[in-house]
Amino acid sequence: MSSKPRTVSLVLGSGGARGHAHIGVIRALEEMDFEVRNIAGTSMGAAIGGIYAADKLDTYTEWAYRLAKGDVVKLLDFSFSWQSVFKGERIIKVLQELIGKRMIEDLDKRFTAVATSLDEQCEVWLNSGDLFTAIKASTAVPGVFAPVKLNGRVLVDGGLVNPIPIAPTLNDSTDLTIAVNLSGIGENYTPPDTQARSDEHSSYRDRITHFLNSMRENTDKSADNDESDAADFVVRSIDVMQGTIARLKLAAYAPDKIIEIPRNACSFFEFHRAEEMAELGYERTCAALKDLR
After folding, report:
1. What is the pTM for the complete model shown?
2. In terms of CB atoms within 10 Å, which of 66, 157, 204, 231 comes out highest?
C-alpha cells in the first residue's frame, strides 16, 4: 500500500454540543494519516468543519476546552424579537475574533455548510461567501436562534432537512467518505460520574432558566416555568426529528464508514463538556476505523 495518506470526504452531522465530538474525530483521522480534502457539515458540524477548513481548529479547541457553564450562558444573547429566544450574534462575534474573517472559496479544504430555506422548503448548500454567515445560517435552530436572510432567502438550521449531509460529497474523487452521526441509537453512553452529571445538567438548566426569567422581568413580561424551558423543549423536539431523518439519509446515501456518537452523550446546550465530547469522538473513530489502520 502506498505511504501517501488516503484522502477523505468528511461529513459532520448536527447535534448541538455533541458536535464537539467532531474535534476528536478529526484528531483521530489525522493521527491515522488520513487527508481530509472535502468537508460537508450541518449545524454544529458546519461550525467545526468550517473552522477546521480555515486551519483554526487548534485555536477553537483551546478556547472551547476552557468554557465553563457560566461562560456558555453569557454567550446567549437574548432576543427581543418574536422570531427566536436568542439572537446568536454574540457567539458568532467571538468566533470571528478567534478565527478571523474568512471566505469559503479561499479555504484550504473544500467546504459546504448546509442550511434550510424556509420559503422553498429545501436544503441550501453554502460553499462560497463569508464563512461565518454560512455557519450562522446552518446553526440557526428555529425558535432558538434567529434566522439568517441571505440572497433573498430566509435560512435556518440545515438539520431540519439534512442532519447528516452526505449528498454534497457524492461527486468527490476522494478514496473514502466518512460520516459522523451525532444521533446514534442502540448504544448508550454512560458519562463519568453519572449522578454528578445529572446534578450538573439540572444546575445548568437552572442557569438558563434564571437568565431567561431575568430578561423577561427586565422587559415586564411574565412567564411560568414551562415557558422558561422553551428553548430546551424546542431543541429536544428537533433532536428527535433529526435522528429519524439521519437514519433515512444514511440508508439512502451509504458512506464508506459511519462513526456513531450516542445521542444521549450530552444535551444540546452542554458546550462546557467540549473536552469530554472530543475524547468520545476520538475513541469512536479509532474503533470504527480500526480495520483501516
Report:
1. 0.83
2. 157
Which of 157, 183, 228, 232 is an active site residue?
Answer: 157
232 is catalytic: no
Q: How many CB atoms lie within 10 A of CB 36?
A: 22
Mean pLDDT of the chain: 84
DSSP β-bridge partners for residue 260: 181
CA-wise closest residue to 271 among 76, 97, 41, 64? 64
Distance, CA of 7 to CA of 269 (rounded, Å): 33
- Grid cell at residue 85: 429566544
Residue 66's pLDDT band, with cuts at 50, 70 and 90, is very high
Measured in whole angstroms, the distance separating CA 26 from the mean position of its chain's CA atoms is: 14
- The DSSP element (H or E) to which 260 belongs, if any, is strand 257-262
- The answer to whether 283 and 259 have CB atoms below 8 angstroms apart is no
Active-site pick, 9, 43, 138, 267: 43
Task: List the grid coordinates of 152.
Answer: 433573498
Task: Determine how many CB atoms are found less than 10 A away from the CB of residue 181.
Answer: 26
Q: Does residue 157 register a pLDDT over 50?
A: yes
Torsion of CA 104, 107, 113, 117, to 10 degrees: 10
Residue where the block lists cell 438558563 = 208
State the cell numbers at 79: 432576543
Give one word for 129, left, alpha or beta, with left for phi > 0 and alpha for psi -120 to 50: left
Q: Is the dihedral of CA 43, 60, 177, 132 positive or negative?
A: positive
Report the distance separating Cα 141 and Cα 46, nearest Å.
Answer: 13
Task: List the Cα angle 34/38/43 in 5-degree steps.
Answer: 110
Q: For this structure, is 157 an active site residue? A: yes
